[in-house]
Amino acid sequence: LCYLDLSLPLEYKKLQDICLRMVSPESPAKLYCSYALNIILTAAVIALSVALSGETKTRETEKPVISTLGPCYPTCPSGWIGLGNKCFHFSEDMRNWTFSQTSCMALGAQLAQFDSLEELNFLKRYVGNSFSWIDLQRESTQHPWKWTDNTEYNNLVPVEGEEKHAYLTGSGISSSRDYLKRHWVCSKSNSYTSQYSGPSSF
């Protein structure tokens, strides 16, 4: 906190004393003294105003500025649909299982994998009446279904049929020969961005 010396300058007081000692009210000297006193007083007021203004600006400058980052939101590429921590892409073309997997890999993804009934029901709803390849495959009917990362499928929903590659329909999961042409679904982890809500100060 700054304290300003509001006392009048010594020269001002001396000049005031000289003016008061003058007897004649019509004296030109007294008139000049009045002018001089007014000028000095005006200068003092201006100096005080400038000093107070500078102090206020300094205080405003010293206020802390905080950049506020809002919550994170999942972001998916254009043409992809997000759910939870994943992004899904539904093809319009129809190809065999191998081509479908290669197409997903070119997009930095793989044929769709799901970890919960929520994700499965989401995929079924978007697939509708079409048949779409997903990531599940097996070596034979005597082997378990696995994802392509070699993780064993938890049989959340049984896969119908006796073939080696799985596809999704609006009603469930079935198996088929890999050379048949079908739609496909890709999946990959999404990225997160923080929403910037601007600077705030207090």
UniProtKB/TrEMBL annotation:
Write down the SMART domains for this protein, in alphabetical order.
CLECT
A single MF term (Gene Ontology): carbohydrate binding
Keyword field: Lectin, Membrane, Signal-anchor, Transmembrane, Transmembrane helix
Entry superkingdom: Eukaryota
Q: Where is the C-type lectin domain?
A: 83-187
- Subcellular location, in the record's words? Cell membrane
The protein's matches in Pfam families, at most eight in alphabetical order, are given as: Lectin_C
A GO cellular-component term linked to this record: external side of plasma membrane
**Topologically, how does it sit relative to the membrane?**
Single-pass type II membrane protein
According to the record, the signal peptide region is none
Which residues span the membrane? 35-54
Q: Which SUPFAM superfamilies match?
A: C-type lectin-like
Task: Tell me yes or no: is Lipoprotein among this UniProt entry's keywords.
Answer: no
Q: Which PANTHER family would you find in this protein's record?
A: C-TYPE LECTIN DOMAIN FAMILY 2 MEMBER D, C-TYPE LECTIN DOMAIN-CONTAINING PROTEIN 180
The protein depicted here goes by the name C-type lectin domain-containing protein
Natural source organism: Peromyscus maniculatus bairdii
